[in-house]
Amino acid sequence: MSIIEVRTEGRRAVVTGPPRLNMTAAPQLREVLARAVAEGSPQIVVDLGETTFVDSSGLGALVGGLKTARQAGGDLRLAAVSEQVMTVLTLTSLNRVLRPFPTVEDASREW
Amino acid sequence: MSGDYTLEGLSVPESLDQLHDLLQQVAEEHQGVASTDLMLFETAVIEIAGNVVEHGRPQGTVAWTFTLAVLPDRLAAVLSDDGQEYALAEDQLADGRWAMPEDDLAEGGRGLALASVALDELDYQRTGGINSWTMVRHRREDTAQ
């Protein structure tokens, strides 16, 4: 069952996160992010507007996607994070490398 | 520990959704518990349970029991499993808490560290062939972390 949507437009991709980004969904997200980069869209916004929960495996998938995107000359940005996601990013200090933006539009500016 | 809530099953990824659902039930039935407390407690529970799913051996056949109690001053849970003993990296322990990876771009190694910062007590014991993770979070006011 696919719960992660992807929209690509040239070098850009918007990936919609699953409701719970835990170890059941993380491998799929990892795959989707790798494929977007491999297919020529390394400027990725992960829309977490519907994601109410993330765990460390989900964070690992996001960091993996960030590294893959950067290696291809792009980046990975987060948009519309929930309170739990923001808290987890802060507690792990990952907000330093996975900077959250209020909306997908905000994250898509100034690549 | 006698708990208000109990869940039993196999430590497989799908069981994590049952734990999420149980925590949601707790939130609905205990609306006086601050949402931040429950959110952080759920974060820790899923990390510990995910750790058992990932590292419990023999993989896929480890049976676990989860009990949770909502007490006036704290949330307390125990996750017990009948798998092999865990080989925990003691060098990751600092001041009684697991440390975050030094590399900001590490893709793993944050699970126990995240659980321990979300909790006030996190304890692992191996007794009589059973692994037990005890998780406690003291209840705060809604505005406090």
Question: What order do the helices and strands come in, and which of them pair?
Answer:
The complex is a heterodimer of chains A (111) and B (145).
Chain A: E1 5-9, E2 12-16, E3 20-21, H1 26-38, E4 43-47, E5 53-54, H2 56-71, E6 75-79, H3 83-91, E7 100-101, H4 104-108
Parallel strand pairs in A: 2-4, 3-5, 4-6, 6-7
Antiparallel strand pairs in A: 1-2
Helix pairs in contact in A: 1-2
Chain B: E1 5-10, H1 13-29, H2 35-55, E2 63-70, E3 74-81, E4 93-94, E5 97-98, H3 111-118, E6 121-127, E7 130-138
Antiparallel strand pairs in B: 1-2, 2-3, 3-7, 4-5, 6-7
Helix pairs in contact in B: 1-2, 2-3
Describe the structure.
- The complex is a heterodimer of chains A (111) and B (145).
- Helix content of chain A is 39%, strand content 23%.
- Chain A has 111 residues and is an alpha/beta fold.
- In chain A, α1 packs parallel to α2.
- The two termini of chain B are 26 Å apart.
- Chain B has a 5-stranded antiparallel β-sheet with strand order 1-2-3-7-6. A two-stranded antiparallel sheet of chain B has the order 4-5.
- Chain B has 145 residues and is α+β, with helices and mostly antiparallel strands.
- In chain B, α2 (35-55) runs antiparallel to α3.
- The longest helix of chain B has 21 residues, at 35-55.
- Chains A and B meet through α2 and α3 of A and α1, α2 and α3 of B.
> What is the percent of helical residues of chain B?
25-40%
Structural class of chain A: alpha/beta
The CATH class assignment of chain B is Alpha Beta
* Main beta-sheet strand count, sense and barrel state of chain B: 5 strands, antiparallel
How would you sum up the global shape of chain B?
Answer: globular
User: What characterizes the major β-sheet of chain A?
Assistant: 5 strands, mixed
Terminal CA distance of chain B: 26 Å
Strand order of the largest sheet of chain A: 1-2-4-6-7
> What's the number of extended β-strand segments of chain A?
7
